[in-house]
Design goal:
The protein is of the alpha+beta class. 19% of the residues lie in helices and 46% in strands. The chain has two domains: 34 residues, no CATH class; 161 residues, Lipocalin, CATH 2.40.128.20. Strands 1-2-3-4-5-6-7-8-9-10 form a ten-stranded antiparallel barrel.
C-alpha cells in the first residue's frame, strides 16, 4: 500500500464517525446523505483532492509581478494610484496559489496575503485575503466564464465607515500568461454598482527564473 493510501485512510476514518453532513438531525432516518463504504469514501476524497484543469488555469498567476493599483473611494472622483509588487507561489502540489503583496496605501506601507483555489466539490473558484491595514479575513467564491476570460466571485466584507457588512464582487481577468487584471466592485449609496479597485499585474521579466522555481513546488 502507498503512503497516499494511508494518508487518505487517516482522513477518511474520522469522517466515518462524524460524516460531512450538517448538524445531526433529530431523525437520522430522514438524512439525505448516502451511506458510503470506506472504498467509496476513499475514492471521493481522492477525487476531491486531485488538482485539475481549473488549478492549472490558476497556475498562470505564479511568478513575480509589478502592480499598478487604482483605488476609488468615491465613484465621482479620480482614483488614488499606487505601485506595488506581488509574489505568487504554487502551494501543495498546485492546489492553491498563494499571493504575497507589498506596496503603499494612503501614504503608508501596505502588505497583504491572499490565496486562490478551486473547490472540486462545490465546483467554485475561491479567494481569501488579509492585510496589514485591516483585522478581517475576506472570502469570496464564484465561477469562470471562458468566453470573456473573467473569473467572477462574490463575497462580503465589513466596512469601517458604515460599521456593517457590504457585498463585494471580485473580477479576475487573465489576459495572457504575462498580464492579469483584478477588479473589485461594490454598491454605492445610490444603489448603483461601482468599481472600487483595479490592479493591473504585469509579469516582472527580470524574475522569470523566480516564477519558474515557484511552479515546481
Amino acid at each position: 500500500m502507498t503512503a497516499k493510501f494511508f494518508l487518505i485512510h487517516a482522513l477518511v476514518i474520522p469522517f466515518l464517525a462524524f460524516g460531512c453532513s450538517k448538524a445531526p438531525s433529530a431523525k437520522p432516518s430522514e438524512s439525505t446523505n448516502p451511506q458510503l463504504t470506506p472504498q467509496q469514501m476513499q475514492e471521493a476524497f481522492v477525487k476531491a483532492s486531485t488538482p485539475g484543469a481549473e488549478h492549472k488555469f490558476l497556475a498562470s498567476m505564479v511568478g513575480d509581478w509589478k502592480a499598478v493599483v487604482s483605488m476609488w473611494m468615491n465613484a465621482t472622483k479620480p482614483p488614488e494610484v499606487t505601485a506595488g509588487r506581488s509574489a505568487n507561489s504554487s502551494k501543495y502540489g498546485g492546489r492553491f496559489i498563494e499571493t504575497s503583496y507589498t506596496g503603499t496605501w494612503m501614504g503608508q506601507k501596505f502588505e497583504g496575503t491572499g490565496a486562490w483555489g478551486y473547490d472540486n466539490v462545490t465546483k467554485h473558484y475561491q479567494s481569501s485575503w488579509f492585510d496589514s491595514m485591516s483585522t478581517q479575513l475576506t472570502y469570496a467564491a464564484g465561477t469562470y466564464d471562458a468566453a470573456t476570460k473573467k473569473l467572477t466571485l462574490s463575497g462580503v466584507m465589513s466596512c469601517p465607515m458604515s460599521g456593517g457588512p457590504i457585498d463585494v464582487k471580485q473580477v479576475l481577468t487573465i489576459v495572457d500568461e504575462n498580464k492579469h487584471i483584478y477588479e473589485s466592485f461594490t454598491v454605492g449609496a445610490d444603489g448603483k454598482e461601482f468599481r472600487t479597485m483595479e490592479i493591473v499585474y504585469t509579469r516582472d521579466r527580470k524574475c522569470l527564473k523566480c516564477g519558474s522555481n515557484r511552479k515546481r513546488k
